[in-house]
Amino acid sequence: MSIVKNIIAGGLSVLISAAVLTSLSSCSQKEAVSVTPETKVWAWMSGKTTTPDRRWRRSFRKASRAGINAVLLECHGGYPEILGDSSSFRDSAAIRIIRSALPHAERYGIELHAWIWTINRTEKNLRKAHSEWYQVNALGESCADIKLYNREHYRWLCPSRKETEEYLRNRVAELAEIRGLAGVHLDFIRYPDAILPYGLHESRGVFQDKVYPRWDFCYCEVCRDAFRERTGTDPLELEDPTSCEAWMQYRWDALTNVANALGKEIRSHGKIASAAVFASPEESKKLVRQDWANFRNFDVLFPMIYHRFYNWPDEMVGTATRQGVRALERNDNPASLCSGLFVGHVPKQRISEFFDDARDNGSTGICLFSLEKIDEKWGYWRALRKAIRRFRE
Predict the structure, then answer these.
(1) Which pLDDT score is estimated for 34?
(2) Residue 82 C-alpha from the chain's centroid
(3) Helix axes 351-360, 316-330, angle to 10 degrees
(4) What is the pLDDT of residue 202?
(5) CATH number, domain containing residue 114
(6) pLDDT tens digits, one per residue of 220-255
(7) Is residue 7 one of the residues assigned to a domain?
(8) Range in 2-16, 180-194, 360-374 the model is least confident about
(9) Is residue 368 one of the residues assigned to a domain?
(10) Is residue 133 part of a domain?
């Protein structure tokens, strides 16, 4: 009799298990939402060599549950860690951060990209060894020596120097070689702010109604000699350097050449090349000498449309997106544009509105700054999850 009971119980167990699996499968099918390039959601996130496994698991789990597909992980930022021999420029800390995060990203189905600061390089070992590589303003001051905008981390390499390109190519190559990494993401691929975004003037204690010599870079000997050879003019002798189209074009081209070389290097390793750029093409050229519509060898460009820093109305998210898309088209640039949104400027009740505004104006997906900012806002994860599901309907 007990054998019969066990058989019956076992049969019921199998039936119940099958029913549960069917139910779970059904629920999974109901929740499955297709992801297209237009509905791909990215986010920026910071990491350290000391980040514990539990933090990685928590961050990627929450991102995955919300519907985020890809994370741009900062592994070399404004205050980079140096591991081992400080005379070696190999970025061992950045490599360790990516390798530590990768298994957790893979576990939760998150595409991982290594996010690094590029022209803005603050590592003290580099500044000590090659201070001559850093940009010089129109007053003759090197940003290796002065705190620009009173920021310790504002230290900028000169894009005209071959040494800069070689150094940065080595840095992206050692990351791009990491197996399982989806891509390398370049940030601060620009000059220092000739004019800060207007909404930051008061908080930074500056007044900038035009470009002043203190914030106008780069006038190092390499740049001056190259421009003098090309035009016969020393840029320091120009009455109004910002009104000289040839001098502006020289700096746009110098930066673009480095960006293009780095994009090519990333792609040569079979990885996705991407870059964070300023909000709109014309503002970028004016404020930070960044002609990103002409950046080549990139798969995705992320204009950081942090509109309130410019004192822009909310409608400018769509407007800046459209301006960027049209600029890429005019320049026959095949890169996709993905609008970057600052979480602090997007109320949780209106996330869907901002998402739609960007996509309706040509953005390929959405990128959020940042996972840490989302954590700081009560109820934002829940609201974001709903907004992403709606974004994909």
Answers:
(1) 85
(2) 22
(3) 20
(4) 85
(5) 3.20.20.80
(6) 999 999 999 999 999 999 999 999 999 999 999 999
(7) no
(8) 2-16
(9) yes
(10) yes
The β-bridge partners of 300 are: 274, 336
Domain that holds residue 70: 38-391
pLDDT digits (tens, 9 = 90+) for 31-53: 456 899 899 999 999 999 999 99
- Write the pLDDT tens digit of every residue in 58-81: 999 999 999 999 999 999 999 999
Residue 84 pLDDT greater than 90, yes or no: no
Give the separation between CA 107 and CA 253, rounded to whole angstroms: 42
List b or e across 236-255, with b for residues whose CB sees 16 or more CB atoms inside 10 angstroms: eeeeebeebeebbebbbebb
- CB burial readout 170-180, b (16+ within 10 A) else e: ebbebbbebee
Output the average pLDDT for the chain. 92
Classify residue 320: in a domain, yes or no: yes
pLDDT at 306 over 50: yes
Total number of domains constituting the chain: 1
Give the whole-number percent of the chain exceeding pLDDT 90: 87
- The pLDDT score that the predictor gives to residue 31 is 45
Q: How far apart are CA 213 and CA 227, in angstroms?
A: 18
